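User: Predict DUF6305 family protein's structure from this.
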Amino acid sequence: MLKKYTPVFICVLLGLIFLFSSINSSTAKHINTYPNLPAPIGEERILITSAGQAVEGTIILTIAENLNLEADYRPRALGTDLYDYKSVIIVLGYSSNGLSHVNRSFQEELIRTKEIVEEAKLNNLPVILINLSGPFREEERTWELFTYTVGYANYYIGLNNGYNMNRYKNELKKHHVPTTLVKQLDDLHIPLNSAFR
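Assistant:
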């Protein structure tokens, strides 16, 4: 009689073990991820700027133009330049070459970026962070730019490249920032559009 119910008992026991292990792991790593936002958070005219002077801002401008969004790309924008805009997109990515072209040190870039997000907060402008950094831009300076800006972000869109993603996810979770992670650049259109329409 005991042999008859042993396989059933083992299956039920394994099922309970898998259930409890998945509950514990999913709650510990939960982050508010969306394929796109359920409602728009921003309005047009949009300032697109760079934090770190990487060239990925031009990619975001091209996507915005394809979506017929009214946007300007100003990689050298200052906090005082926000008077003309209703939303801010900050493209994260440190580039030593980019900084050398604008004659700015990394510390000056951090200050400029912080002034932009603080001014956006004062004017109640939504801030969207976009991080297209792959393994070549994923370094401590990009992380420092991220940590300076994430507390001001209303939405985060990033490449889910698996490189240091847990560190980013933990910080986004800590600040309760709605997040969309995409696999490739072509997937950016829908979440970016959902932020404005």
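The beta strands are 46-51, 71-73, 87-92, 127-131, 155-159, 179-182.
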